[in-house]
Design goal:
The protein is globular, with a radius of gyration of 17 Å. It has 231 residues and is an alpha/beta fold. Strand 3, helix 5 and strand 4 form a beta-alpha-beta unit.
């Protein structure tokens, strides 16, 4: 069972010179374990877990559930396997002439800065010269990131839902980037902030600071009526 994989979105990074892989867990509490503690109802419904050509097949879904259970039932085993796969991926990227980067929460929102191996090291400390990045709805996590309390090789983008607008306003005022899902097309600005096209690639650590990362709704999000998708 491989922990790291790609998808169509993160694969787009290759044209910018980056080799990207990430971890697809089973989102929210679908596996019996909750990997998305800050998920709203709209977020859980619109999750990209089932978007994509093969994502909703039994093999893919069962694999994500198995990986999630592996994480919760044997964190040290999971951590060791993840570190090994990252090490191999870094070498693979070098052979391709690409820069490696990793998104550990493709369909989860786990606080990787607090997850440590038996030597009390985080994954970011094991690979200090490798870029990691994620989206998060964790307000405290994002505040800590903006305050410089996160690993220097870990980039976070705050993710808007239908129930955290007040937190989005605070993060935006502090200079953080906020990802928003829009219906059909992206506006040029939103609430006075420049909107950039977040669908061109998944390389959020390259985004200018203080912008809105616009994403057009996909999959089940097209049927959203909760306010998660902005009209």
């Amino acid at each position: 069972m491989k922990l790291l994989s790609d998808n169509n979105k993160i694969h787009k990074g290759e044209k910018f010179g980056f080799y990207t892989l990430g971890v697809h867990l089973s989102p929210h509490d679908k596996s019996g374990f909750n990997v998305c503690p800050w998920a709203s109802e709209g977020c859980a419904m619109a999750c990209l877990d089932t978007a994509g050509k093969w994502s909703n097949t039994p093999n893919v879904q069962n694999s994500r559930i198995a990986k999630t259970r592996f994480f919760f039932e044997d964190k040290q085993g999971f951590f060791c396997k993840l570190a090994h796969e990252i090490s191999l991926a870094v070498k693979r990227a070098s052979k391709k002439g690409l820069i490696p980067c990793f998104r550990l929460n493709l369909t989860s929102d786990l606080p990787w800065e607090a997850i440590r191996n038996s030597d009390r090291k985080t994954i970011f400390e094991l690979f200090p010269n490798v870029q990691f990045y994620d989206y998060t709805k964790g307000f405290s996590r994002m505040r800590n990131y903006l305050a410089g309390k996160m690993p220097s090789n870990y980039h976070l983008t705050f993710s808007r839902s239908e129930s955290n607008q007040a937190h989005c306003d605070i993060i935006a005022k502090l200079g953080g980037n906020v990802a928003c899902v829009f219906r059909n097309e992206l506006p040029s600005t939103w609430q006075g902030k420049r909107v950039i096209n977040g669908d061109e690639s998944d390389l959020r650590f390259l985004d200018p600071q203080g912008c809105i990362v616009g994403l057009v709704e996909k999959g089940r999000a097209k049927k959203d009526e909760s306010g998660f998708v902005l009209n």
